[in-house]
Design brief:
Elements (H helix, E strand, L loop, with lengths): L10 H5 L7 E3 L2 H10 L3 E6 L4 H11 L2 H10 L1 E6 L4 H15 L6 E5 L5 E5 L13 H14 L1 H19 L11 H13 L17 H14 L4 H19 L13 E2 L7 E2 L2 E2 H18 L2 H17 L10 E2 L2 E2 L2 E2 L7 H8 L3 H7 L28 H8 L3 H19 L7 E2 L2 E2 H18 L2 H17 L1 E2 L2 E7 L2 E5 L2 H18 L2 H17 L33 H16 L2 H4 L1 H8 L12 H11 L3 E6 L2 H12 L7 E5 L18 E6 L2 E2 L6 H8 L1
Length: 686
């Protein structure tokens, strides 16, 4: 018989609706039951595409004996971390405080009023891997609760106090907003940079798009004239090319997996996330603007096309994720044996095996399924001279044949059982997608991407914007969960990019409403910076401020970037100075944990940049050639303001339409003569 999760919309929660565990969703009912029955709460947090979440579910939550222990001794709450990032971040801080690390599945034991007293991540069914077996842990904590309650409550109060102190910390003196700080940050990143395979650190390796964007911003400021500027660009391009040729990038269908389990970007953890692909597609787009390298634009296009093909909801939003598993086996949808390639390709198999780095032994081995052997994750790191010699063809012919092979393999793969789709629509992640599609439409001159961006913005406004407030998650017509800082900041940044594409002032006006919400409902008036949740929202045991980038930009970093853009468009200097209070909150940590602050470092670069505006006034078709000139270059902190009527922004004052399209380039309150031709505009931008 289904449990209470059967009434939820989250695909992750619905995956657990038939567990023998008496699961509750997060809410008053569960806490009231815990108080009434004097039981501790077992909080389990995960997400639908998390492989180890599936493993623990199969081993423990589907096991009747384990479920009986859970039901008898605890009130059990299941949370989708993507639906409730606020709940996740509070209790993840507790996990990290107790164990020194974190991750999912997250397992937290807490008092009926929500104070944690024991926490961890994955627990196996029996003792192993240095962890207690889950049934033994359940019995032990039950005994502690019933026999040594005072000590448990002391632990809960101590840990909760630690969380409160961490949330209320005041930064000491440290890094200031300056080029010296940015340059020092580049040096720190370089110290942890993998000079062989690119990326930061070793295995497992994450793409870190916020840090790559920061490095591109430093190169924009310095160009190749300084060692710092050149080093920043070199790290970005090396990393992007290594990721694109490894197995973390889907060589057949486009799009990136969440991370690589090895340092070579070869073997991925196979889930594909909206946030990852939206951010990475945009980094590749920017690197293409800097270099003109069509290989980089190809990866961006393939990633956008993957999102449109596989993750777009009919209503216009984008789904959250594709699972790592298919038929219960990690990566089964994506990997190949030599036999499978020969069966699919016939005489072309040998060429495919050479191009995609396939071997008889295989490069992917699943410890949970040792019987599945000789499987390969496809890569694109061929020995080109060797292949041209062995197969006796020129490079153009080779690439034509590889394109045909890719299409055949993609068609063959489509016959397989697809990974599960998490079809909820998250407002924040869709804000990232909005920015990416809007900018891609402008830079790549691709109308399909522009239509997707406009449709997405209309969907968000119609479905997730209620009574002047955003809601965080939507599925099948139902929007719920009060919007968080990241929802407002990410959507706001997306609307800025959509305005640059369309010149429709309504997009900026809505963005201004979102910023007003942030300033009124999320800001810490005493210490500066922004809370993750609104002041009039649900009260958790602590109210945290998100400064540290996770897989997505930090809420405070994104809010600072958003406020800077709105200040540059509308004029209030106070909005531009928000970055000062955000940086002040992390000044003493900024250079000590530099790779966690890529978004705030971008905001610092924005704040240091000169005020530069490009207003393009005229009929849509007539101003298009001028807009194409602007789109061809990488100008990350430039206000781009197209308009048919010259109304709605201070930048248009005295610049009414004259019957011809004109571009006005200004920098630091000094303007050049209006450019009438693409050549004149290109000269001014140089």
């Amino acid at each position: 018989m289904p449990n209470r999760l059967a009434n939820e919309t989250s695909p992750y929660l619905l995956q657990h609706a038939d567990n023998p565990v008496d699961w509750y969703p997060w809410g008053d009912e569960a806490f009231a039951k815990a108080r009434a029955e004097d039981k501790p709460i077992l909080l389990s947090v995960g997400y639908s595409s998390c492989h180890w979440c599936h493993v623990m579910a199969h081993e423990s939550f589907e096991d009747p004996a384990t479920a009986e222990l859970m039901n008898r001794h605890f009130v059990n709450i299941k949370v989708d971390r993507e639906e409730r990032p606020d709940v996740d971040s509070v209790y993840m801080t507790a996990v990290q405080a107790l164990s020194g690390s974190g991750g999912w599945p997250m397992t937290v034991f807490m008092t009926p009023d929500g104070r944690p007293f024991y926490a961890g991540t994955y627990f196996p069914p029996q003792d192993g891997h240095g962890r207690p077996g889950f049934p033994r842990l359940l019995q032990f904590l039950h005994e502690k609760w019933t026999e040594d309650r005072e000590k448990v409550l002391e632990s809960a109060e101590s840990l909760t106090e630690h969380l409160r102190n961490a949330a209320a910390r005041v930064a000491g003196p440290g890094a200031a907003i300056s080029q010296e700080t940015s340059n020092a940050a580049v040096e720190r990143i370089a110290e942890n940079y993998d000079t062989t395979w690119g990326g930061i650190g070793s295995a497992p390796k994450f793409p870190s798009p916020s840090n790559l964007e920061f490095l591109l911003a430093v190169h924009y400021r310095d160009g190749s004239a300084t060692e710092t500027g050149q080093a920043a660009l070199d790290m970005v391009l090396h990393t992007l090319r290594a990721m694109a040729t490894g197995g973390m990038y889907d060589q057949l269908g486009g799009g990136f997996a969440r991370y690589s389990v090895d340092e070579r970007w070869m073997v991925p953890h196979f889930e594909k996330m909206l946030y990852n692909n939206a951010q990475l597609a945009r980094v590749y787009l920017h690197a293409y603007q800097v270099t003109g390298d069509e290989g980089l634009s190809r990866i961006a296009r393939e990633t956008f096309d993957f999102l449109l093909r596989e993750m777009q909801d009919p209503a216009g939003g984008f789904h959250a994720a594709l699972d790592a598993d298919s038929e219960g086996i990690e990566g089964k949808y994506y990997v190949w044996t030599t036999e499978q390639l020969r069966e699919a390709l016939g005489d072309e198999a040998d060429l495919a095996i050479a191009w995609y780095g396939v071997s008889e032994a295989g490069n992917f081995h699943d410890p949970h399924h040792p019987e599945l052997t000789r499987r390969n994750v496809l890569s694109a790191r061929p020995d080109l001279p060797d292949i041209l010699g062995r197969f006796q063809m020129d490079e153009a012919t080779l690439l034509e044949r590889i394109d045909a092979i890719q299409a055949r393999l993609l068609s063959e793969r489509a016959r397989r059982v697809r990974p599960g789709l998490d079809d909820k629509v998250l407002t924040s992640w869709n804000g990232l997608a909005l920015a990416a599609f809007a900018e891609a439409a402008r830079v790549l001159d691709e109308p399909e991407y522009g239509l997707a961006a406009a449709r997405l913005a209309a969907f968000l406004r119609e479905s997730c914007w209620k009574d002047g407030r955003l809601l965080h998650t939507w599925k099948q017509g139902l929007a719920r969960v009060d919007g968080m800082l990241e929802d407002y900041a990410y959507v706001g940044l997306g609307l800025v990019e959509l305005y640059k594409l369309t010149g429709e002032i309504d997009h900026l006006e809505w963005a201004r409403d979102l910023l007003d919400n942030i300033l009124k409902r999320f800001r810490d008036a005493e210490r500066g910076g922004f809370y993750e949740t609104p002041g009039d929202g649900e009260a958790l045991i602590v109210r945290q401020k998100p400064f540290f980038d996770a897989a997505t930009p930090s809420g405070n970093g994104a809010a600072a970037l958003f406020a800077l853009w709105m200040g540059r468009y509308y004029g209030p200097a106070a909005w531009e100075h928000i970055v000062d209070e955000v940086v002040a909150n992390v000044a003493d940590h900024l250079l000590q944990a530099v790779t966690g602050f890529g978004t705030i470092l971008q905001a610092m670069e924005f704040a240091l940049s000169p005020h530069r505006e490009i207003a393009i006034v005229g009929d849509v078709l007539e101003r298009r050639p001028l807009e194409r000139v602007v789109a061809s270059g990488f100008y990350p902190w430039t206000v781009i303001a197209p308009s048919a009527d010259g109304e709605g922004l201070p930048i248009f004052e005295g610049r009414e339409p004259t019957g011809e399209a004109l571009a006005y380039v200004c920098e630091n309150m000094t303007c050049k003569m209006p450019a009438r031709t693409t050549g004149e505009l290109a000269d001014q931008l140089r």
